[in-house]
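Case study.
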Amino acid sequence: ETGVTQSPTHLIKTRGQQVTLRCSSQSGHNTVSWYQQALGQGPQFIFQYYREEENGRGNFPPRFSGLQFPNYSSELNVNALELDDSALYLCASSLAGGGNEQYFGPGTRLTVT
Amino acid sequence: AQSVTQLDSQVPVFEEAPVELRCNYSSSVSVYLFWYVQYPNQGLQLLLKYLSGSTLVESINGFEAEFNKSQTSFHLRKPSVHISDTAEYFCAVSERGGGSNYKLTFGKGTLLTVNP
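After joint prediction, the assembly is written out as follows.
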């Protein structure tokens, strides 16, 4: 059983640029959630995808967008990067349903300069 | 809206001492409760969870947490810690949102440092 993988591991971008982060979900999982973890903070929910459709969104602006593909892998896109977007971005996959464990990937560390 | 408060940002203890990491939550509906652990430069790993039934839940590595509905708490305890328990611990809740959205709301974390 392959766990959740994310790419790239680290990324450095300049303010105003765009970035795409990728996540491969665990085999059999149909739900992917994305979280932003700023330094010294707990993860904050960005959005969730279920069967290729957005299924809930946190308090993040529209320049944060995503996709889920038929194989349930997912992308997080951030446009017009700001310095405050510097964070660890975590992807988690799960089966749909309350109480089901979300399995987290190792994260992508994004630095915006 | 739901929120989670972890009352201690850092907890230093000596090896083999007991420890309690405190977590309180607020929510207008029933919740599921979780503790996740994050080791340096790694993602989050589920430590234990409360869904229903017995209010005391245990993990395989000696941690336990008790759900207290009246106090809206889910404190994490271990009677004797090891140096390998040094990590950041996050308390999280989920409640049913729209559709099948079971987002997790996390606290800010507690850094447990176990000293020899």
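Observations recorded in class. The interface with chain A takes residues 4, 6, 32, 36, 41-46, 49, 51, 90, 92, 94-109 of chain B (CB under 8 Å). The two ends of chain B are 41 Å apart (CA to CA). We will return to this complex in the next lecture.
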